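thought: fold this chain, then report.
action: predict
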Amino acid sequence: MSKSNSKIDQEQIEFLENAQKRIRQKKILYNHFIFFLFISAFLFVLDFILNIGSDLNIYEYSWSVWVFLIWMFLFLFHTFNVFVSNKFLGDMWVKKQTRLLMELQKHKIEKLKNDIASEAKIIASSETFYNKSSLITIIAAADENNVIGNDNKLIWHLSDDLKNFKNLTKDHHVIMGRKTFESMPKALPNRTNVVITRNKNYVGENIIVVSSLNEALEVSKNDSQPFIIGGGEIYNLAMEIADRIELTRVHSKFEGDTFFPFIDLNQWVEVKRDERKKDSKHNYDFTFIRYDKKK
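observation:
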């Protein structure tokens, strides 16, 4: 069955279900009306013919009149719900609005993907003019599923990992995407912060702004070991040209929206490993792993 036929069948099913529900609502309203008429007549007989509770007059109106008026209001409210609210704002309306919102959200996601792809093309300029003698190093922390962040924020706090990052990158160039830079309170001290963005008018305190990864590496050509520190798109672009990966593998699994690229062991070889156990300062086991690209 084609997708269009499936959609038509689904709409027909929803229309039938809504029609059946409307019939039930009107049937209940009809029963309510009949019940209301008989009970109202019965109350008036008790009050005005049998004089039961005749002394219960409120603001010069008999008790049965007040019951009738209150019940009349409830019945009219019920009628309004059936013929107005449920007709125009019922399940069919809710489902239709939900589909429209989902389509709108899908369109926004596609636009965002296209924008990211466009930015990646700019960043991944085909021209290569950086210094090949530098040891280009990717440094990152990732969980067992390669999650590195969520909503542009770090998910974990590992004291020794931060110290390791600080010790390795001190006095070096650190290259990052705009979102990674904006996730930090300020530029990293004792390092040269290089930010990649397609926004030519982008400014920030204590940073060098470039438009591509190659340009970032050109800026860092006098650094013997520039470090690429994120985010996900920058890591993906850097995998082909990097010489080393300093990876902190966090031995747990987290929900996230940013991932570290897959490390192909046909291209990379593990040369160093330092395992750490969780303790009072670390909530998770983790391992420092160094990979060098195979020659």
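thought: worth noting. The chain is about 45% helix and 20% strand.
final: tokens above.
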